[in-house]
Design goal:
By secondary structure, the chain is an alpha/beta fold. It has twelve helices and ten strands. The strands form two sheets. Strands 3-4-6-5-7-8-9-10 form an eight-stranded mixed beta sheet, sandwiched between helices. Strands 1-2 form a two-stranded antiparallel sheet.
């Protein structure tokens, strides 16, 4: 724990010193993108701690256990929820199961509030609402909205389309209980990061195809949109920047029982033939992320169908940055894209 505490102190140092402490010259990738000094330092110091815990020949449950052990020392240093943010857990039926949904609210939110259903990242396989607890609380405060964080069922125990079905069940539950929850049923938005971003884009497409009430808006944070992994960035940034090419292939294998579905728009939204009428979107990408190009491409595809789209790309950032607020500038970046999301939700 002392080591992690020292890391947080080092991250407050000037950029030049952080680059020197990383042991390398500042890393630059295509397009003259320069890796943020805080992330360069963090990758150098903490990257090995997590990579040593991930053996893709192990079962998903074993990997979850080892990652939880690796994260344990840092938990004592986690910040608390923003002042004025509270939460309560609900149980929501989804098929024959019940899933946990955590509702975040603030003292300033009145009845008839906007709602954001949020799905966490982790390749459809890893993590939970606990790992995104601080971020989802921060979103509630920043967006002045109720945020419903969904502990959806994970693959491979529950492969596609289980998580998507859970998403739909939560959407229906919020619609049916909007008075009790104190939200506006016409302002239910969806969002998520990475695999959660993939599911958010997919649920927007599915609800439209099934003539169900659409989300008001979609918040897609470095989303997975192409499970063929055909973009340049997955080769360019294959290793060394937290999320790797190898891990994405492993995630896909856990999520999909049938690889013939890889170009289905509900699996790979980038293969949608028509996105007309999709909810307005904010799409966020990071310059040093294997998913960068497919996220950029999805923002462009939405725009090509005249969907109101705000695209933020943070050239110096890595995948997972929204949960790394110890790096200088991250919270300001989150507030920047939240400002645009408030225009459309």
């Amino acid at each position: 724990m002392l080591y992690v505490y020292l890391i947080t102190l080092f991250l407050k140092l000037p950029s030049k010193i952080l680059i020197w402490l990383s042991g390398k010259e500042q890393i630059i990738t295509k397009g003259d993108r320069k890796l943020d000094p805080g992330f360069q330092f963090l990758l150098n110091r903490l990257g090995g701690i997590f990579s040593e815990k991930v053996d893709f020949s192990s079962s998903a449950s074993e990997i979850r256990r080892k990652l939880a052990e690796a994260q344990e020392p840092a938990k004592a240093l986690n910040p608390s929820l923003p002042k004025g943010v509270s939460y309560v857990d609900h149980e929501v039926a989804s098929g024959d199961d019940f899933i946990r949904v955590r509702e975040y609210s603030t003292n300033e939110i009145n009845k008839n509030a906007p709602a954001l259903i949020y799905l966490h990242g982790g390749g459809w396989v890893l993590f939970s609402i606990e790992d995104h607890h601080i971020f989802t609380g921060f979103l509630s405060k920043t967006l002045e909205a109720k945020v419903f964080s969904v502990d959806y069922r994970l693959a491979p125990e529950n492969p596609y389309p289980a998580a998507l079905n859970d998403y739909d069940s939560v959407f229906e539950w919020i619609e049916q209980n909007y008075e009790m929850l104190g939200i506006d049923p016409k302002r239910i938005s969806v969002g998520g990061d990475s695999a959660g971003g993939n599911l958010s884009a997919a649920i927007s497409i599915r609800r439209q195809s099934e003539n169900k009430s659409p989300p008001k808006a979609q918040l897609l944070i470095y989303p997975v949109t192409d499970l063929t992994f055909s973009s340049d960035s997955i080769e360019e940034l294959a290793d060394g920047f937290f999320l790797t090419k190898e891990s994405m292939y492993w995630f896909r294998d856990q999520y999909l029982e049938d690889h013939d579905l890889v170009k289905d728009p509900l699996v790979s939204p980038l293969f949608s033939k028509d996105l007309s009428g999709q909810p307005p979107a904010v799409v966020i990408t990071a310059g040093f992320d294997v998913l960068r190009d497919e996220g950029d491409a999805y923002a462009d595809l939405l725009k090509s169908f005249d969907v109101e789209t705000y695209h933020h790309t943070f050239d110096g950032y890595i995948h997972g940055f929204v949960n790394m607020d110890m790096v200088s500038g991250v919270n300001q970046s989150i507030m920047k894209f939240c400002k645009d999301f408030k225009k459309i939700y």
